[in-house]
Specification:
By secondary structure, the chain is of the alpha/beta class. It has a single domain, classed as Alpha-Beta Barrel (TIM Barrel), CATH 3.20.20. Helices cover 48% and strands 11% of the residues. It contains 14 helices and eight strands. An eight-stranded parallel sheet has the order 7-6-5-4-3-2-1-8. Strand 4, helix 4 and strand 5 form a beta-alpha-beta unit. Helix 8 crosses helix 9. It starts with 7 loop residues before the first strand and ends with a helix. The relative contact order is 0.13. The protein binds 2-(acetylamino)-2-deoxy-D-mannose. 2-(acetylamino)-2-deoxy-D-mannose (MN9) binds next to strand 8.
């Protein structure tokens, strides 16, 4: 089970909505083909990017099914099941296992914040137990959950009490903590990086897999960073990472995922807007965003060669 490690670029997928904010599963198949054709090596479904927390459990199940079906076993599909109700999270985990997802992942409850590692392990044991056949990755994202616990301690204790604990989705910027997690027990734990704008730093620290929202819009850029890094061309890797930083700063002037969906719209995928509280970007902002992205030549360097060639 634990040799089922993730690698390369895992796209944190978007959840397509229609103009009324209802699920629109239709674009998922084409989106999945496009991501796989560009070298994406996995899908992370219903996380922050996929607005898992803004969907009902029934909707989460439908989105999970659509992505598992579209991937058709070609790349791993990780379903994020975190919920303030652990019982609900556990049922979503069981569903992920039942539909053939390859991995399951969860954030911690966040309304009542968790302030010790023991309690976090108790919570995650309950969720991971819903999908005992799947590798489980705790989704550490302290900026959103408010839970800033030590992840090395979590892996140590969780490793003893959660049989299918396979690692972390590490979405923080503490490279030193990330490094210690990677080095703790590499035969067992897979620790996946989750901050796109710092991917080069994570590669230098030992990352072999990353999960990111902006891989949806600029996979070639991140493949380029990875390739340049492995060839020892740090000047080129840094140049490309700097483009990623600039791109994320440009998009981040707006509600981030609403703006990301607008960028995907510019690339031909109509995924609608986000649900409240994120909302939809007004047309005037979409056109300013397009101009800002044009001014950094985004539409050239983010373009996959497979499309450029046609
Ligand atoms: O899943 C994403 N995290 C969030 C990972 O959306 C909270 C990242 O890919 C970020 O969107 C990205 C831009 O800040 O690093």
């Amino acid at each position: 089970m634990i040799d089922n490690k993730l690698n390369g670029l895992i796209a944190a997928t978007y959840t397509p909505l229609d103009d009324n904010g209802e699920l629109n599963l239709d674009p998922i198949a084409a989106m999945t083909e496009w991501l796989i054709a560009q070298g994406i090596s996995g899908l992370y479904v219903c996380g922050s990017t996929g607005e898992g927390m803004s969907l009902s459990s029934d909707e989460r199940r439908r989105v999970a099914e659509a992505y598992v079906q579209s991937a058709g076993g070609r790349v791993p599909v990780i379903i994020q099941v975190g919920h303030n109700s652990l019982a609900e999270a556990r049922q979503l985990a069981a569903h992920a296992q039942q539909i053939g997802a390859t991995h399951v992942s969860a954030t911690c409850p966040s309304y009542f914040s968790i302030n010790n590692v023991n309690t976090l392990v108790d919570c995650m044991a309950e969720v991971a137990g819903g999908a005992p056949e799947l590798p489980f990755y705790y989704y550490h994202i302290p900026a959103l959950t408010g839970s800033t616990l030590d992840m090395v301690e979590f892996l140590k204790l969780g490793g003893q009490r959660i049989p299918n604990l396979a690692g972390l989705k590490y979405t923080d910027t503490k490279l030193h903590e990330f490094q210690q997690c990677l080095e703790l027990d590499p035969a067992r734990f897979d620790v996946v990086w989750g901050c796109d704008e710092m991917m080069l730093g994570a590669l230098a620290t030992g990352a072999t897999a990353s999960i990111g929202s902006t891989f949806n819009i600029a996979a070639p850029l991140y493949l380029g960073i990875t390739e340049a890094f492995h060839q020892g061309d740090l000047v080129e890797a840094r140049r490309l990472q700097s483009l990623s930083v600039e791109m994320i700063r440009t998009i981040g002037k707006y509600p981030f995922h609403a703006a990301m969906k607008a960028v995907l719209g510019m690339k031909g995928f109509d995924l609608g807007g986000c649900r409240l509280p994120q909302g939809r970007l007004p047309e005037s902002d979409v056109s300013t965003l397009r101009q800002n992205l044009e001014s950094i030549v985004f539409f050239d360097w983010s373009q996959p060669e497979i499309h450029a060639a046609t």
